[in-house]
Amino acid sequence: MMRTHEAGTIRAEHADTEVTIAGWVAARRDHGGVVFFDLRDASGVVQVVVDPEQITDDDVHHIGREWVLQIIGTVRPRPAGTVNADLPTGEVEVAARTLTVLNRAEPPPFPLSERGDDVDEVLRLKHRYLDLRRPSMQRNLRMRSTVNAALRTAMIDRGFVEIETPMLIASTPEGARDFVVPSRLSPGEFYALPQSPQLFKQLLMVGGLDRYFQIARCLRDEDLRGNRQFEFMQYDMEMSFAGQADVMEVVAAAVSTAVETVTGAPLGTIAEVTWAEAMERYGSDKPDTRFGMELTDLADAVAGTEFKAFHAAAVKGICVPGAADSSRSTLDGLVDRAKGLGAAGLVWMRVKAGNELESPIAKFLSESERSGIVTALGAAAGDLVLIVAGERRRTNAVLGALRLDLGRPPVSEGGLVPLWVVDFPLFEALTDDGRPIPAHHPFTQPHVDDFGLLGATGEALLEVRSQAYDLVINGWELGSGSVRIHQPELQAQIFSMLGIDDETAQARFGFLLEAFRYGAPPHAGFAFGVDRLVALLAGEESIREVIAFPKTQSGADPLTGAPSPIDATQLRELGLTVKPRPT
Ligand code: ASP
After folding, report:
1. What are the φ and ψ backbone dihedral angles of 11, each rounded to 5 degrees?
2. What does the DSSP 8-state code read for residue 322?
């Protein structure tokens, strides 16, 4: 038997038992006499004491970090005063009777401490197999497996069928760039890797599967800013004869089950906010509601003011608690940041005793305007008030960004605070020639009350709401979904509004449109990022901490060397010639 016990499970109750354990040398203390090893396996570490006088078949003093050992020895209580209360095995040690070197190891290129924050990420990823030995990576990947299992159980319990959709497909319209795979059998033709299972899950609904789910790999060739990876795992679902409320109920239950399995407590009720309200109150479609500092409309407080900069479509402010003592250079930095975000300027006001405002523009405001601002924002002495005036969307966006800069707690603080954002606009913007650009994918149903607005043109189109909804946790967009269009006439109308002519529609989604001619049930669905959910649960700011083999920010894998050139034969078979990089 390789082992009778796992190292991290040995306790005082095992005293006087002979155990066989195996693992890596996590640490060694060698003072010339007995040698202490912390032996690590997946379950944790235990201290092993080796007396070189007794164990003579190997040179114990040569054994280094990360060597792989098997120890047969007796568990005994640690001598008084040497108990380590921080370690689950800290009351005991294993006195070795035999020591077998199962494998030697070169010294690791970086210390395998609890967290790897101090180690260069490229180095960590180049030796990810070592990095994975660190306790935080072990914990995160195990948590991930627990989350996946809980999501599966939750869905299967609700009658959902797990179905794998293909990886080599035609393009999916999620709005990102496709990763493409050249076809050897049809040179010059390409598969796209799925940006999501969207089209297939809709076909499954036409196919009568009724309730589908999958923990699906999705690939999007987009810039890797922030918490994005080229490939990511998505909990993906679709259901027939169902609408927004049904989908939200199932998704909430699945997320809650996963959260409860990991933390012991369910997620709790999920508050709901409309997109329009989220933009007004938080300046974001993914509000972090763990803290206040909400955007406050100051239009009434400054109505009729003589201060020209406040003669704007929107005048709004936030109150930063206790920040009145910010230095002048900090405040100048905030002004620059606001301008960088597109504001014409930023007004700051320090709230002094007696609610007096200290600000370069205070003298341009009347007494009642100043007190109106303080009252509207609920500001008190010691607070800092920041005001932006301008076009409404821009004003909201600038203040929303400043609110996050100044108030956002670390992701691990304050528990998980989820929020549904509903009634997203159908179109997010207009092209130069006035065509609407879809906010979600082009199969999203307009809001039931807004069908009448579909005939509008120009900016008015941006008022059309959709039946699309997002789930946000701690300010991260976890996922989104929508009620789909199942009526061919409506789909044709939306395509024509988007400027997708019949020919293009046929070429890109002809198979879906054709399927819809054969009795598509009303259906709706959702998808969320499993990487993000696990990162939130693990309290990690970066999803790379919960992915076994992630890519770097530049999309490279330092471990395998991907991406890399392919050889001439392979290129020839694929009918490809690589042009030299433009210089
Ligand atoms: N396919 C969508 C996405 O990946 C989610 C959905 O609408 O179900 O974002």
Report:
1. -135, 175
2. T
Between strands 523-529 and 231-240, the pairing is antiparallel
As given in the structure block, the two tokens for residue 335 are 């002004």
Continuous segment of H or E residues that includes residue 225 = none
278-332 pLDDT per residue, tens:
999 999 999 999 999 999 999 999 998 999 999 999 999 999 999 999 999 999 9
Cα(431) to centroid(ligand 1), Å = 23
For atom 4 of ligand 1, which residue has the closest CA?
Answer: 196
Q: Structural domain boundaries of the chain? A: 7-103, 292-407, 422-526
Which residues of 177-309 form beta strands (DSSP E)? 180-182, 190-192, 211-219, 231-240, 271-274, 296-297
Q: Is the CB of residue 244 below 6 angstroms from any atom belonging to ligand 1?
A: no
CATH ID of 292-407, from 3.40.630.30, 2.60.40.10, 3.30.1540.10, 3.30.1360.30: 3.30.1360.30
For the stretch 159-188, pLDDT in tens is 999 999 999 998 777 888 999 999 999 999
In ligand 1, the atom with minimum distance to the C-alpha of 236 is 8
Cα 514 off chain centre by: 36
Distance CA 231, CA 369 (A): 52
Statement: the pTM of the whole predicted model exceeds 0.90? yes
CA of 527 relative to ligand 1 center, distance in Å: 5
